[in-house]
Predict the structure of Porphobilinogen deaminase.
Amino acid sequence: MKKEPISNTSIIPKGGAARAEACPHRNRDPRILKNDRLIIATRESQLALWQAEHVQARLRALYPQCSVELLGMTTRGDRILDRTLSKVGGKGLFVKELETALQDGRADLAVHSLKDVPVDLAPEFALSTIMEREDPRDALVSARYAELADMPAGAVIGTSSLRRESQIRARHPHLQVRPLRGNLQTRLAKLDRGEYDAIVLAAAGLRRLGLGDRIRTLLAPEDSLPAAGQGALGIEIRADREDLRAVLAPLAHAATTAEALAERAVSRRLGGSCQVPLAAYAQAQGESLRLRALVATPDGARIVRAERTGAARDAEALGLAVAEELLAAGAADILAALG
Ligand SMILES: NCc1[nH]cc(CCC(=O)O)c1CC(=O)O
């Protein structure tokens, strides 16, 4: 296999000189944080930077004495722009370089779109914190069409997500689905150049970048069930950094955490690779959690769905139960056929 060049990294200067004081917790408990400086590893796409800066701002507000800086990195997933990611190795592509920075101590935490975090991390890493979710739905972006149902036969719709593609093909078999890659700005530019009649993107990314006005329609979960973790941010640390768990605890969001645990349990049980059109979407309401999931063939000819409501505190068990139901209802055959 060809060896990729090692990542180019840079400390991104932000908002003046770093302060050098010690970094106590609000309670001034010196055990809480060993260092006076926290470094956040992040990809350098605009969306990744927005997300890392969001975490940086939250941490600075919680710990004003502490210097919180970003370490920007380019991952393999960012460098491979010409191929559909599911064909070249899947989700780990966006995470690995950031994990290397955690491993060798160049960074303390990594901020990810939770959707891009593999369900099974290596044992030396931990998903310590799941933050409040943005709108988890998919969005239709188009200058020409307000609804998928308005698009005429042969119209071209862009997405490189097997999950989106199979659901579109199932309901709108007369449309042409063409691959669409690149960061958000690149994808929008391709649409604006007329390479597509419409594209489908996560609403969360568009909103975060102030591009919410590009959304024509939010797709209902019945039409485009979201991916596990879509719209949520996850913070990854080295599993042995107990000191950081308490530091990050105030950033966790209980309802999103329950939703994400249920959704990720479905992906884990079903093998969660990008090769399989798989969607899992949970909605917490008080103590209860409604979970919907599906597995499809890439052409959308078969879609197996399952839905259950359970207790939010048993989120992972709910995810497993829904996964078992999918398998029994035919997902096992679909997964076997995809190899
Ligand atoms: N797969 C890329 C990716 N990872 C996270 C987001 C959007 C933000 C989110 O879902 O949190 C996107 C873009 C997209 O799906 O349109």
User: Anything to note?
Assistant: Residues 113, 115-116, 201-202, 204-205, 230-231 surround PBG (CB under 6 Å).
